[in-house]
Structure formats: structure tokens, C-alpha cells
Amino acid sequence: MKLKHLVLIVFVSVFLSRCASGATIEGMTVKDYKSEKRIGDKIFIKPVIGGEETSPFGISKISNKNFEEAFKKSILDSNFFSKISSTTDDDWIIEMSIVSVDKPKFGFVFTVKSVINYKLYYKNKLVFSKNINQTGRATFSDAQVGVKRVRIANEFSAKNNIKSLFESLNEMALDNVDLNSVGTKLNSY
């Protein structure tokens, strides 16, 4: 009888270790990007929309909450802004929408493509709007278990997406645009 219980516990443990988990905050956080110029002091980050929660028995996804937290950590590390604001009264506001996350269902190499829409406002005026497409790739050497490989590819894709946004924002900051006349020029990024 004890052997049956032991076998059942081992089986359940192995099964659960192979369950899907969502993209992690740590895995999506950009830590290696520093802007050449600060854009502003504080930024308010609207709640992210478009993400999905991961079912343990499904495939890994990017949740709104985890992407938002990864973005907050990334933006502070990037030096674009020094603080995250808790009110919409500040000059700078960003909103993000996860438009799509395309991922394979099986394979040895997983490539995930994320499309995220970013809108940056200065004093309630849209100064930057862009859909950013980025991929992330995970191989068998990143993880032997497929569900973990998909999660890692999701994280790489989201991280690359945020980093691509930072590159666009850096161009904007270096242009030294007069923020009182924002609008058409910045929307072209």
C-alpha cells in the first residue's frame, strides 16, 4: 500500500513540474539598458491590457500584471524617469496594450513574437505611439521541458519588446524636442 502512495506522489510531482507557468517579472525585466538622457522626473503607468493568465494545463502566457511590473522595474533601471507616479496628475503617462503573442505549440526551438502598443502622453497630449514587434527564442539548451521553453521564449520576447521601446524613447529624448510643441514630430517614431 505504501508503495502505491509513493508511486502516486512521484507521478503527481513529475506531472505538476511540467505544468505551464506564466512569463515571470524577473524574466521580462530589462536590466542592461541605460538611456543617454532623462525624459522626465515621474511617469504614471496605466494598467496594462491585452495580456492573459496562464492555465497550469495550458501554454505559457504573458499576464497584464507581470508585464506591468516588469515594465516598471525596467523603466526605473533605464534612467528615463526617476520615479513611478501613483496619480495621473503628473506630466508623463504611458499606456500599454499587449496586442498579440504568437507562439508555437511544439518543437525543440520556440520562437515567440509579441506585438505591444505603447502610447506616451505629455500633459495629456499624445507624443509617441507605436506598435512594437519583437521575438524571443528559447532552445533545448535553455530548458529541456517544452512548457518551460515556451515561458522563456515569452520572457525574451517581452524583454526585447521593452528594450526596443527604450531605443525609440532614447531617440526621442536625444532629439531635444521642445515639449511645448509636441505632437506630430514625436508620433513618427
What does this structure look like?
By secondary structure, this protein is of the alpha/beta class. It has a five-stranded mixed sheet with strand order 2-1-3-4-5. It has helices at residues 2-17, 25-28, 64-78, 146-174, and strands at 42-45, 83-85, 92-102, 110-122, 125-138. Helix 3 packs across helix 4 (146-174).
Provide a brief overview of the structure.
The chain has helices at residues 2-17, 25-28, 64-78, 146-174, and strands at residues 42-45, 83-85, 92-102, 110-122, 125-138. It is an alpha/beta fold and 189 residues long. A hairpin with a 7-residue loop joins strand 3 (92-102) and strand 4.
Write the layout of secondary structure elements.
Layout: H1 2-17, H2 25-28, E1 42-45, H3 64-78, E2 83-85, E3 92-102, E4 110-122, E5 125-138, H4 146-174
Parallel strand pairs: 1-2, 1-3
Antiparallel strand pairs: 3-4, 4-5
Helix pairs in contact: 3-4
Helix/sheet category? alpha/beta
Helical stretch tally: 4
Taking the alpha carbons of the first and last residues, their distance comes to 67 Å
Low-confidence stretches: 6-17, 183-189
> What strand line-up does the widest sheet have?
2-1-3-4-5
**Radius of gyration computed on alpha carbons:** 20 Å
Overall outline: elongated
Largest sheet: 5 strands, mixed
What is the H/E string? HHEHEEEEH
**E-strand count:** 5
Rounded average pLDDT: 85
Q: What share of the residues lie within helices? A: 25-40%
Estimate the strand proportion: 15-25%
Offer a few descriptive terms:
alpha/beta; five-stranded mixed beta sheet; 24% strand
